[in-house]
Amino acid sequence: MNSSHGDYDTLIQPIEDRMIRTVWRIVRDPDDADDAFQEALETIWRRLDHVARHPNPHALILRICINCAYDVLRRKSRRERHIALAEISDEMPASAPSAAEQVASRETREEIYRAIGQLPGKQAEAVLMRFVEDMPYGDIAQALGCREATARKHIARARVKLATALAHLAPSPLREVANHEAY
Could you give the number of structural domains in the chain? Predict the structure, then answer.
């Protein structure tokens, strides 16, 4: 019992707030965040020997949190898709402009997270660690088990793929210039 308590004090307690923030930034829902956090703790506890021996156990723990958060999002997405297909209706509900703006903002954020979720595993993890958690490249490399240059390459490739996948979200300067010249 003392060993387990000591492992908690040295591995989890120092970064527990960061773990919760990491999960929250991905799932953005209190119930889903609780589920993902508990799943992460369970995974950490099951693999405690591996986590404790890792060169950077805190980075590995955050990587586990990220993976669990994405697992929760994937399950929720599948469940919602299944429900939506069962309840398709021909009527479109009317919405006020302010509500539409809120939905568009939320949908954009969800679309970005979905695009990150479509990236290859290490690229997605590297992007989240770098841009969500502001982790330095060295820590990302340790968490991914690669060299720092490789971690930078994962992020660079992910950015290119995300730029392509999300190009429709950004205004196109060429389109704007063409539209202004038409007048």
Answer: 1
